[in-house]
Design brief:
TIM Barrel; alpha/beta; 8 strands; 36% helix; eight-stranded parallel beta sheet
Length: 223
């Protein structure tokens, strides 16, 4: 089987022969779907942090994170664009960090105008921290690379004015994923743009991203 395109974060998976999509589910929705039998990531989104007490969130995580079909914890994180206080969001986010550490699974992070806050919370850990939908500028990227974050790049890169385009040139290929999130953009367009900015053939980029998937998530897809 040829190496597929990898979409590391999508909310609307559509089966295609040359594409593997890692679907992101809200943890409360995952819990209501006991027949699910394919790999996903799941967590309490910061938009929903106010819906659960810390005890409720902890118990829901404990009930579910050991499920073998949950291969990553999240998306979870911090978001300054919503009304829920950062204190409440951070408390729920911290529970995910502890759960990911305990179970040994990567954590998928939603971060909106909270780069410094998320960086502050990242301690010495062997758990990969993946910043999904990353849009940071060159200076932000340089700071985050010092703590070995992994960057998942989406359709924002296709905007020729995006400061993110400068960041692509300094992100090591082993710290990179590509995603579509909640858009209907063809993942191949993003691959093409990343390959162009890195001056490499798209097929080589596919191999690298597939290798990153195996390294961080294990053998969840064959090629």
């Amino acid at each position: 089987m040829p190496v597929p395109y990898i979409d590391i974060h999508t909310h609307d998976a559509v089966e295609q022969e040359d594409l593997f999509q890692l679907q992101s589910l809200f943890l409360q929705d995952f819990e209501q779907n006991p027949s699910l039998n394919y790999p996903v990531t799941a967590g309490i989104h910061p938009w929903h942090a106010h819906l659960f007490t810390p005890d409720e969130a902890r118990e829901m995580l404990e009930r579910n994170i050991g499920n073998p079909y949950i291969v990553g914890i999240g998306e979870t994180g911090l978001d300054r664009s919503i009304h829920t206080s950062l204190a409440i969001q951070e408390e729920i986010f911290q529970l995910h960090i502890e759960a990911a550490e305990k179970i040994g699974k990567p954590i998928i992070i939603h971060c909106v105008r909270c780069w410094q806050d998320v960086s502050r919370l990242k301690k010495d850990t062997s758990i990969p921290w993946i910043l999904h939908g990353y849009t940071g500028n060159l200076q932000t990227t340089q700071q985050l690379l010092k703590k070995n974050f992994i960057f998942s790049i989406g359709s924002h890169l296709l905007d020729r004015r995006a400061k993110l385009r400068e960041s692509i040139e300094i992100i090591p290929i082993e710290n990179l994923f590509i995603e579509t999130d909640d858009t209907n953009v063809d993942i191949r367009e993003i691959y093409h743009e990343v390959a162009l900015l890195n001056n490499m053939p798209p097929e080589d980029l596919k191999m690298h991203i597939f290798g990153n998937l195996k390294k961080i998530f294990g053998p969840i897809v064959r090629a």
